[in-house]
Amino acid sequence: TLGISQNEFYMAFGGPMVPVMVWGLGQGDKVPAGFRVGAAYGLPWQRDVDAGKIFLEALKTETNADVARALAENLSGIVKPEMASDLAAAAKANLENPAVLPSIIQSLGNISTDEAVGYLEEFARSENESLRNEAELALIAVRPPAAGLLITYTAPNSQAETAGIKRGDIIVSFDGQAVKDLASLRDEIGRTGGDALVTVMVN
Question: What is the pTM of this model?
Answer without folding.
Answer: 0.78
